[in-house]
TrEMBL record, chain A:
Its EC number is 2.7.13.3. This is Chemotaxis protein CheA. Residues 617-753 form the CheW-like domain. Involved in the transmission of sensory signals from the chemoreceptors to the flagellar motors. CheA is autophosphorylated; it can transfer its phosphate group to either CheB or CheY. It comes from Pacificibacter maritimus. The lineage of its organism: Bacteria, Pseudomonadati, Pseudomonadota, Alphaproteobacteria, Rhodobacterales. Residues 491-507 have a biased composition (Basic and acidic residues).
From TrEMBL, chain B:
Gene3D superfamilies: 3.40.50.2300. The keyword Nucleotide-binding does not apply. Pfam families: Response_reg (PF00072). It comes from Pacificibacter maritimus. GO terms for biological process: phosphorelay signal transduction system. Residues 4-120 form the Response regulatory domain. PANTHER family: CHEMOTAXIS TWO-COMPONENT RESPONSE REGULATOR, STRESS RESPONSE REGULATOR PROTEIN 1. PROSITE patterns: RESPONSE_REGULATORY. This is Two-component system chemotaxis response regulator CheY. Keywords: Phosphoprotein.
Length: 766, 121
């Protein structure tokens, strides 16, 4: 295993991304008016956790910024600051900067201060300047734990030598030899400590014995216990502290180090620490007597609580001279001797209350494993091969003429089902909610709207829609561009919007949903819509179309996708970066997707992207057209029908339509559209596939026969042949034959619609 | 001495670090993601000491400590609060909820171990 810290560091940055995501979620909720404390806490906690982790890795820039952000969120959390729209906008910006800082830290490329300072200044303006308060947070190191404090004379430079410390038997000291340097020769430096625990000290789970041990680790100690306050056994309340100790410690450590031993019990006891003075020897002896008087308490030890309080000292092997009583006490069964209520802690079944608490747990935390994406991809490919293999096997079984109820056939049936399950499970490994992508777009909206001085709000719908991880990654660039376009070109300026009777704040809506086996992503704005007159003019100016070309609205809208088209009369610094919608379109197509525009003047523009759910395997219908075998994606097929005379209507000289339940859809002759043969002209009794499209339009595809329905593995064609109109990809069928996979929507949109031979002239019917 | 430690923190990074620090020190480490989960884990083990974060979803450190302390059998398990804040107010609140001590993040593993030994003897 590699360096565990490096692994934790890597995992920290992954966690940061998750935290940044919940931060965005929380802020979005706040923006929508949710002011519940848990919502604010989500944001606070995200920042807080990032800070905590960053501190552990010494990522100071990140800590510094996160701290200031956290402070502001704390103000909100405690109700001292009302999160109005401006504040929330600033918090969003803070979230963005925080994300930048996280990535900068991850990639080890420091973010310039110019990125953080203005935001910090705004935070200061919001909550009031902070005097570097993080110092307070981070300089605190519990010195109880400090071993490396310089042992010096800091505390008592003038401490006189105290010759001879008879009671200190250094030979018996089992402490670290470096701590034993305080011996009679170097003289006693150290302190006298009066320690009187309150009952609350015991209640807090602290234990005087351990404190004494910690002191022992700092130097030689002499302990005396004052039992004067120990009441009569009848009056003894074991929950109360009755004992007090005087400890003399010989140490080179400064007083702070000694005091810090008591840090956790500060306020739970009376504590007096004074530097040892010359006369200490005498008092030491005196206290010794007190201590040695302890054994007389022994009879009382039947009282558990007392035992507890007495025991600590005896148990110390380092203090044998001081506490002669111990051994007998110490040898007792620990469970008997042991303290106060703790002792009852042996395995008792959980009480009802505890069980109840357990039951309230709404979800069991999910166990996760991080897997290299490459491994998953390999698995996906293997499943693809498995699907092909299974198809070939089925084919062989069929050809062998085995009856359907033969064991081989039934076994194969199960194999098929399993293959399908495996495939789905594997695809689920790669699927992720599209949320992370949407959140990144939130930032694009904020930044781009600020730079063009428009007021824009982003709405997201369906952010939990799961999409293949590869698809999500490859969608980032095209979506960014589309969002910038929407803000820059789609939406009007606030003034224009008001003049048009719209709210000043423009709205960009991103949605994702599964529709008929594909993912539909839409980016919509409520702007002015496409200015078709202007688009046409520009296209003519740029020689993209001839001046007299007749274009439908849809054709004009699609001009936006032509290479070299840009509508902004001045290229703004936002979207005009030499990357046009043509690039967006080709990136979507490379994902096997399609992009369409719809626009209503004055109401806005919507871009719709439709993507295949997976990039690897597809459910298809195998059809024959002429001599060719083709695969039609099953999800595009609404139904299959056999045409009757009544269904079929002629429309114009070249085309037919099919009447389906009162509606008409155009009939396309697949063989003719793909150029395999001329249109057949006669379709009655023939088979058609009713194809549904994202835009709701339908078409009927005439095929010769339907052969089968099966899963096929998608093998890309574009690498070898470029993009073929109407064809999405290819696959290998069970018999080893290669079949083309149809892209029905593309085919329909490019179709000629010719279903008749030129010479056949039929008048329009019905 | 092998201590059995329950560490409760909602941050995975922090849990990883605690796990590393504690396991390297030879302690048996149990991890939980928040107070509710902590109580679940606690009902199956008998740790010598508990470390808990304060700010966590579902049940925060205060709630968790309250719940632990309200069970007699858990009443005296030392609890160290793990926090980035060192404000006195917070310490007072933590103590009121039953904390034995506190560790300020970011922690030095050696100091963490010392603190654990400090409260467990």
């Amino acid at each position: 295993m590699s360096d565990p810290m490096a692994e934790i560091r890597a995992s920290f940055f992954i966690e940061c991304e998750e935290l940044l995501e919940s931060l965005q979620d929380g802020l979005t909720l706040m923006e929508d008016g949710n002011s519940e404390s848990e919502t604010i806490n989500i944001v606070f906690r995200a920042v807080h956790s990032i800070k905590g982790g960053a501190g552990a890795f010494g990522l100071d820039d990140l800590v510094h910024f996160a701290h200031r952000f956290e402070t502001a969120m704390d103000e909100v959390r405690t109700g001292r600051l009302a999160p109005d729209a401006d504040a929330i906008r600033l918090f969003f910006t803070c979230g963005d900067v925080l994300a930048d800082l996280v990535r900068a830290a991850r990639d080890d490329t420091p973010l310039p201060e110019s990125k953080t300072e203005p935001v910090l200044a705004q935070l200061d303006a919001l909550v009031g300047a902070q005097d570097e308060p993080e110092e307070e947070d981070f300089d605190f190191t519990p010195a109880t734990l400090s071993l490396d404090l310089a042992g010096g004379d800091l505390a008592m430079p003038n401490l006189p030598d105290i010759p001879g410390l008879p009671p200190l038997d250094l030979s018996q000291d089992d402490a670290d030899p470096t701590l034993s340097k305080t011996d009679a020769a170097s003289g006693l430096k150290g302190f006298t400590i009066l320690f009187k625990p309150d009952a609350s000290l015991y209640a807090s789970g602290n234990e005087p014995l351990y404190l004494l041990r910690a002191l022992r680790d700092m130097g030689d100690i002499e302990v005396s216990c004052n039992t004067d306050k120990l009441p009569n056994i009848a009056e003894l309340d074991p929950e109360l502290g009755h004992l007090e100790w005087t400890i003399k410690i010989a140490t080179d450590e400064p007083m702070e180090a000694v005091r810090e031993v008591f840090e956790f019990v500060d306020g739970l006891c009376v504590l007096e620490i004074s530097p040892n003075s010359g006369g200490s020897n005498e008092s030491l002896d005196g206290e010794f007597e007190t201590a040695s008087a302890l054994p007389t308490c022994a009879p009382l030890t039947t009282a558990d609580a007392l035992e507890k309080e007495v025991k600590p000292l005896p148990a110390e092997t380092a203090l044998p001279d001081i506490m002669p009583a111990p051994s007998n006490v110490e040898k007792q069964d620990p469970s008997e001797v042991s303290p106060e209520p703790v002792e009852q802690q042996k395995p008792t079944p959980p009480t009802d209350k505890a069980t109840e608490t357990t039951k309230t747990a709404p979800t069991q935390p999910r166990a996760t494993v991080r897997v290299d994406l490459e491994r998953v991809d390999r698995l996906v490919n293997l499943v693809g091969e498995l699907v092909i293999n299974q198809a070939m096997l089925s084919q062989s079984v069929t050809e062998a003429g085995l009856p359907p109820n033969s064991p081989v056939s039934t076994g194969l049936e199960e194999f098929l089902q399993l293959t399908r399950d495996i495939q789905e499970s594997v695809m689920m490994i790669r699927a992720q909610p599209i949320k992370s992508l949407f959140q990144r777009m939130g930032r694009i909206v904020r930044e781009s709207s600020a730079s063009v001085k428009k007021e824009v709000k982003l709405h997201t719908i369906g952010e939990n829609t799961e999409v293949d991880k590869t698809v999500i990654e490859r969608l980032a660039d095209p979506l960014t561009h589309m969002i910038r376009n929407a803000v820059d070109h789609g939406l009007e300026s606030p003034e224009k919007r008001e003049a048009a009777g719209k709210p000043r704040e423009g709205r960009v809506t991103m949605s994702a949903q599964h529709r008929s086996g594909r993912i539909l992503i839409e980016v919509a704005d409520d702007g002015a819509g496409i200015n078709r007159k202007r688009v046409r003019e520009i296209a003519i100016e740029k020689n993209l179309i001839p001046e007299d070309m007749l274009l439908s609205d849809n054709d004009i809208d699609n001009l936006l996708f032509m290479p070299g088209f840009s509508t902004a009369s001045e290229i703004s610094n936002l979207s005009g970066r030499g990357v046009g919608m043509d690039v967006v379109k080709s990136s979507i197509q490379s994902l096997g997707g399609r992009i369409t525009i719809s626009s209503v003047e004055g109401k806005g523009t919507t871009f719709s992207i439709s993507l295949p759910l997976t990039l690897a395997v597809l459910d298809g219908m195998v059809v024959k057209v002429g001599d060719e075998t083709l695969v039609v994606p099953l999800n595009a097929i609404l139904e299959t029908l056999t045409l009757t005379d009544d269904d079929l209507k002629s429309l114009g000289p070249d085309t037919h339509v099919v009447q389906i339940r009162g509606g008409f859809v155009p009939l396309l002759d697949l063989g003719a559209e793909l150029g395999y043969r001329p249109p057949q002209g006669k379709y009655v009794g023939g088979t058609v596939l009713l194809i549904g499209q994202e835009d709701g339009n339908r078409a009927a595809l005439a095929v010769d026969t339907i052969e089968d329905q099966r899963q096929v593995v998608i093998k890309g064609l574009e690498g070898s042949y470029g993009r073929v109109p109407g064809i999405a990809a290819a696959t290998i069928l069970g018999d080893g034959q290669i079949a083309l996979i149809l892209d029905p929507s593309d085919l329909v949109s490019q179709a000629s619609g010719k279903t008749k031979q030129r010479n056949a002239s039929v008048p329009l019917v019905g | 001495m092998s201590l059995e430690v329950l560490a409760v923190d909602d941050s995975r990074t922090m849990r990883d670090m605690l796990n590393l620090a504690l396991s390297s020190a030879g302690f048996t480490t149990h991890l939980a993601e928040d107070g509710v989960h902590g109580l679940e884990v606690l009902s199956n083990i008998e740790p010598d000491v508990i470390i808990t974060d304060i700010n966590m979803p579902r049940m925060d450190g205060f709630g968790f400590m309250d719940a632990v302390r309200s069970e007699e059998k858990w009443g005296k398990i030392p609890i160290l609060v793990l926090t980035t804040e060192s404000a006195d107010e917070l310490k007072a609140k933590a103590r009121a909820a039953g904390a034995t001590g506190w560790i300020v993040k970011p922690f030095d593993p050696a100091k963490l171990v010392k603190a654990l030994q400090m409260v467990t003897g």
